[in-house]
Amino acid sequence: MSGTPRVVLVDDHGLFRSGVRSELGRQVEVLGEADDVQPAIDLITSVQPEVVLLDVHLPGGGGQAVIEAIKPLFPSVRFLALSASDAPEDVIAVIRAGARGYVTKTISTAELADAIQRVAAGDAVFSHRLAGFVLDAFSADPSSAGVKPSFDPELDQLTSREREVLRLIAQGYTYKEIARELYISVKTVESHVSSVLRKLQLSSRHQLTRWAAERRLA
Amino acid sequence: MDGMEDPAPWQRGRDQFGPWGPHGPFGRRHRGPFWLRHRGNGGPLRRDTADRLAGGVASGVAAWRGVNVTTVRIVFVLIALVSGGFCVPFYVVGWLLIPAAGEDTNIGSRARSDSAGIALAAGLATLLALVLLVGGVFNDGWFAGWAWPQTVTVAGLALIWRNASPDEQATLRRLVEPLSAAGVGPGRGRPGRRAVIRVTLAGALVFAGAGWLASAKESLALLRPLGGVVLVIAGIVLLLGPWWLRIARDLVLERQAKVRAEERADISARVHDSVLQTLALIQRRADDPQKVVWLARMQERELRSWLFEGRAPGEAEADMTFAAGVRQIQQDVESRYGVPVEAVTVGDCELDENLNALLAAAREATVNAAKWSGAGVISLFAEVEPDSVSLVVRDRGKGFDPSSVPADRKGLAESVYGRMARRGGTADVVSAEGEGTKVTLRMARPAAAPARSGGAS
Predict the structure, then answer these.
(1) Alpha carbon A39 to chain centroid distance?
(2) Considering CB atoms only, which of A128, A139, A218 is closest to B342?
(3) How many CB atoms lie within 10 A of CB A179?
(4) Chain A residues with CB-CB distance to B under 8 A?
(5) How far, in whole angstroms, is CA B429 from its chain's centroid?
(6) Cβ-nearest to A215 among B307, B379, B454
(7) Which of A90, A134, B283, B427 is the most buried (most CB within 10 A)?
(8) CB B118 within 8 A of CB B179
(9) Predicted ipTM?
(10) Of A133, A170, A218, the CB nearest to B381
(11) Longest C-alpha distance within chain B, in Å?
């Protein structure tokens, strides 16, 4: 998993793709680019990259359509969602479909390269905004009305440690800084974030997607 | 006009516009009676294809004379009814002879070269005339009197059908399509059992009614012709009902399309006002990276609040909540000091005196960070919990040694610590040289106010 991750870029803006490609330069190996759902599925199927940088919004059905098509075929391909949109419903939808992380397009090149490395290594990557969404989504009392419990009730709650980690991510801390702040190792931070990701993907609590849609209306 | 054979010399220059010259038969500017002068659009009479029910003649006349379309339509229908159908052909002739808006030729001039169409029109008119002749034998003539002029209508419609512009033809086809789909016309691959049953039933009803009507001449009973009329109407409704529904639905769809088009126009206007203007500014300030970043940030925030929160730029916050207050700090600091501020809020609640104080302290802390820290970005994190509200202002800038700050420095002591303490809150400043600064503000909430979800921005 070390060295340069093999990456596919999926984004409908050619300008953005070429920008990312030239900025990332030698830090990753770009195997190809696609601008829509079907071309992306074909490309990923043929080159089988480690990481797919996936735009949330694609003309032919959105990023989650790509994830849903690829996941059953190539479970080893990992997705990092990338979007200019911060609409919670979009973000939550891609994450629930199986993306390992979400970053905004305003992210700096160094951070993006770091995020790709991290996703390639199997970790989760949360932007500060996603951390905010997750805290918000899990904040209401789980016993409140309309919440159908998951088969595993632990999925419906964040531990206080996970909450702390998310708060620090939302404040713009890096994993290393979080580790120092909480006197834990970076590996532990990573495992907390991965566990939050798992809860986000598996919890039936809150009908997270509905939460996101409602948030948009607010 | 390519591919058409060369017209005879005597036709040249004339045929291009039809026999009436470039403006058609009603082309010259009409003076009209004094009470109509200086009204209307001042242009030649044109059919208005954008706002039409049939050929757009009524709306064309309305625009030409500056009268309400609906009035014109009602007058047309009244004339058609009062004249016993005699005036309907005039409408069709108008449709043939008045060019559509934006077109030079009328349909009539195109139809002249369509010999197959003329034959079809003549054939249809003859057929209708025959039917009427035969029908007249059984009937006492009130029906025929109404129907005879329609031979001209049918012929005219046939010519229009064949020679209208592609756009108009598409509309006509759309109107007639369900008729053929109902099984009346062949060529629709899916008649379906229901359609067959409907057509059979309708046919039976029409025939029964027509027979009843035909025999009404000899009958003295008053109810019998009435029953015949009812049966015929029922048959027609059954036969054409779906078609009428389709027309009504198409009208609704058209209206929706119009609404969408307006919405799109609104969006493009907004994009122009904000995004394109900013892009122009960015191009002009390309040599000043900081200014460019600032412009881009401002535009991004504006667009975001419009797209995701439905708030137009410059629109006042109706009832300001805590999250909106945080957003306000973010905006003000970004635009005044040109330092990006990443704001994340979790949850939201109404503002009260305590939270206003918290926001004021947070603003001071953010401004301090923007002015002194030299950090490239400041992060603002606010969380509303059931029993407290916390807000963290953090930067990765120079930092300072809190113990070395002189006591008379108002900023921190008064604006942050003082403000919070007076309201029963706490302020905690962590900083070290070269390691940035973190200001944590916390305020307890009165138990009565429940947290409101919504606010991560």
Answers:
(1) 21
(2) A128
(3) 19
(4) 85-88, 106, 128-129, 131-133, 135-136, 139-140, 167, 170-172, 211, 214-216, 218
(5) 54
(6) B454
(7) A134
(8) no
(9) 0.76
(10) A170
(11) 119
Angle at B166 between CA B165 and CA B172, to 5 degrees: 90
Inspect the interface and report whether the beta carbons of A106 and B300 lie closer than 8 Å.
Answer: yes
| Residue B33 CB contacts under 8 Å (≥ 6 apart), including other chains | none
Residue numbers in A near B379 (CB within 8 A): 128, 170-172
Q: Which residues of B touch A106 (CB under 8 A)?
A: 300
Q: Is B381 in Cβ contact with A171 (below 8 Å)?
A: yes
Q: In this complex, is the C-beta atom of B455 within 8 Å of any C-beta atom belonging to chain A?
A: yes
| A·B CB contacts under 8 A | 67
Instruction: Please judge whether B377 and A131 are an interchain contact, meaning their C-beta atoms are less than 8 angstroms apart.
Output: no
Global confidence as pTM? 0.53
Residues 6 or more apart from B259 whose CB is under 8 A from it?
Answer: none
